[in-house]
Amino acid sequence: MSTSTQEAAEQQDWMNGGDEGAAAVASPRAPSSRYKGVVPQPNGRWGAQIYERHARVWLGTFADEAAAARAYDVAALRFRGRGGAVNFPAAHAAAAAEMAFLAALPKSEVVDMLRKHTYDDELRQALRSAAAAGGCGGGDRATAMVPRRVALFEKAVTPSDVGRLNRLVVPKLQAEKHFPPLDEAVPPPVLLAFEDAGGGGKVWRFRYSYWSSSQSYVLTRGWSRFVREKGLAAGDTVAFSQAAAVSSASGTDAGEVGVKRRMFIECRKRKRKDDGGGGGGPGDGCCADGGARVVKLFGANIAAAAATGASCMC
């Protein structure tokens, strides 16, 4: 399967839920559920689904009927707003924080969380971040939300990374060292969440998968939004890091990277040849708010030693 064909298949997979969703459609009709948007499965589990513009969106399978009903409720709140019909109205009556969380996410990312059963964890993390931001005053808010970090790796993005393919190719060595392991024979996609290193509590979510056709690890769904909002262009650098351990009480050294610790993403802009101006402006290869120029040679920033001012982070 070519890369473009596989990408198109991933886009279609968001709607029909892949093999799991197709099996639910093909299965013999079973007694209906008492909950809206819930369908029984032949294996005794329960599926959840919602319709968007007359097209079925598969939300995943769950161990019990109530869990599937709650997944439908979450999707209904995101797809139809607070006025949408839900199975448990009392549970969402005063959930203003959850509504704000859902409103900030694309529908496809909410669906991914429900399918991967990560929605509750993501919501708790967002609420904790919001609470931390509320407890900080003024300009210290963003700084207080970003802990001391351990650098993982950097990559200078290529034209194809910021093109129409909607994917970032992650170097194989770095992917296998720092990201969750994937089964190359049957590679199930994984949803990875990265906090914006600039603070503010923003979380970027990307689908992480292995493309056997090109034998490469990629970040796909959600990547184009990051490129667009950050204004990335070929030659810019994307840096990944992880929160450092604060103590070794659990047997983890302070500088050691742990798979369950928070991960962060940031970018550095290269100098734009067609930009004018000078003295700290875009012509110096910086972000709009200033920063140091980045010149890459074999993956190393050779301008770092001579540059002055803060790094050009965004």
Automatic annotation (TrEMBL):
CDD domains the UniProt entry points to: AP2, B3_DNA
Q: Which SMART domains match?
A: AP2, B3
* Signal peptide (from-to): none
Q: Which UniProt keywords apply?
A: DNA-binding, Nucleus, Transcription, Transcription regulation
Primary location: nucleus
State one Pfam family annotation.
Answer: B3
The subcellular localization recorded is: Nucleus
Instruction: Identify the residues that the record assigns to the TF-B3 domain, covering every copy.
Output: 153-263
Q: Which GO terms describe its cellular component?
A: nucleus
According to the record, the residues making up region (Disordered) are 1-38
Q: Where is the AP2/ERF domain?
A: 34-89
Q: Write down the superkingdom of origin.
A: Eukaryota
Q: Which Gene3D superfamilies match?
A: AP2/ERF domain, DNA-binding pseudobarrel domain
Chain intervals with Low complexity compositional bias: 22-34
The name this protein carries in UniProt is AP2/ERF and B3 domain-containing protein
What organism does the record attribute this protein to? Urochloa decumbens
